[in-house]
Each structure stands twice: as structure tokens, then as C-alpha cells.
Amino acid sequence: MPQTILIIEDEADIAESLRYNLEREGFKIQIAESGEKGLRLALNESVAPTLIILDLMLPGMSGLELCRRLRREPQTKKTPIIMLTAKSSESDKVTGLELGADDYITKPFSIKEVLARINAVLRRTDNDSTRRYEDEKLCVDFEDMRVFCCGQEVKLTRKEFALLANLVKNSGRVATRQNLLDNVWGYSYFGDTRTLDVHIRRLRQKLGPCSECIETVVGVGYRFVGNKSAEK
Ligand code: CA
Fold first, then answer.
1. In this structure, what are the phi and psi dihedrals at residue 118, rounded to the nearest 5 degrees?
2. Pairing of strands 221-224, 214-217
3. Cis bond before residue 80 (omega within 30° of 0)
4. Residue 36 and residue 113: Cα distance in Å, rounded?
5. Second label for 130, Cα 20 to 30 Å away, from 11, 52, 62, 142?
6. How many whole angstroms from 49 Cα to the centroid of ligand 1?
7. Sign of dihedral through CA atoms 83, 170, 192, 203?
8. CATH code reported for the domain at 132-224
9. pTM
């Protein structure tokens, strides 16, 4: 069965170009030109979207407000959301990610980038239950809490492991500093975010040849991107 992608975007040329390219990839496409219509389509149980592409700049209900609503509704609580944002709206990006969006794409974007993000998000959703992560260099065993880089075991503290596991489980997705502090240190953590940076630095040091799997997203947080053995 084809997977349905709901595009919520008021700019018709952007929506149509996404439709054209994504249909060629075998997706079924729905378009909503307003947040209100987007919400209606997203909650329509007969054609529940597999993934939602959400423009933040919409007339009427804003993209962020819609994102908040979608995360509150049981039917769409876990539906992956990729936000479309303007370059200038750094704070919207962070707010969107904190509201539970899975990723964002900055306009203007290439269709290749959109496809890569969609595939990464869909892969991640499929693999939610995996017990271990493995790429060409790195192996993270969530059950035994052990990490191997190039076949050598890496000894991590509990916090370092929790941090790495958190990043790995959200592979490809930006984890904001606040999300990481909340998830790894707990909601009651009020310390400053330097604690997080110190842990990331130590984690990278210990990971040695695998350290590039953690990418810094300036001004936002970190993203796990995995390792490839040769060139990218
Ligand atoms: Ca717009």
C-alpha cells in the first residue's frame, strides 16, 4: 500500500513541486493550503498520513500551533512531522522541535534533501523497537548497554551511554539541548547546558574513530548521523 504524505503548505508552487516529485517516488500525496484543513486531513482516519510536511508560515492557524495540536491528538501523536522553515526563523525551528516535530528543512530546499529527510524519518519510525544499532564502524547494544567502535569495546559511564543511546534512537533527527537535558538528566535538571557540552566532548573523545557520528547543530543541539567506513 502506498504511504500517504500530507503536505500542509499555502504556497501552491512549493506544494505542487513536492507533490510532483514525491508522487514519482511512489508516495500518495494530500495537500492542505491551511492549518485548519491540514488538521482535518491529518485526523481523517480513513486516510491517515504516514508522514506530515508542515510549513510553519501559514495563514490562520500557524504551523507551530498545528504541530502542538497534532502532538496532542492520539491519532497523530506519533506521526512523523518534518517542518518547512524560513532561514531566518531559528527560534521557530527550536520551538517546533521541542513541540515534537521530527526534523526541519530550511527553504529554499532541494528535492533530494527532502527525500533524504523523509526516508531517514520513515526508517527511524520503522526501527523503533530495535535492540541494537549497528553501522559500518559503530555498534550500540541498548539491552546490554555496551558500545563497540571498530570492534573495540568503548567503556562509557551511565550518563554517557544514556546520552549516546538517546542520540542514536533519534538518528538523523536534531536533538535540542533542552530535549537532551530533559531526557538524560531529567525534567528537574536546572544546571546550565555546559554540562551537556562537557559530556558530548568526553563521549566524542571516547568514541575516537567513531566520534564523527555526532554532529553539532549550531545554536540548536546535536544530531546522530552514524558512521560510514569510507568517504561519504
Ligand atoms: Ca507558507
1. -60, -50
2. antiparallel
3. no
4. 27
5. 52
6. 20
7. negative
8. 1.10.10.10
9. 0.58
Return the C-alpha cell found at 154.
568503548
How far is residue 41's CA from residue 149's CA, in Å, rounded to a whole number?
45
Question: Which amino acid is it at 103?
Answer: D
- Residue 54 Cα to ligand 1 midpoint, Å, equals 9
- Is-contact 59 136, C-beta < 8 A? no
For residue 124, report the distance from its CA to the centre of ligand 1, in Å: 27
- Containing 31, the helix (H) or strand (E) segment is strand 28-32
pLDDT in tens, 66-117: 999 999 987 888 889 999 998 777 888 889 998 999 999 999 999 999 999 9
CATH class of 4-127: alpha beta
Whole-number Å distance, alpha carbon 126 to ligand 1 midpoint, is 30
Name the one residue in this structure whose C-alpha cell is 485526523.
43
What is the grid cell recorded at 13?
508552487
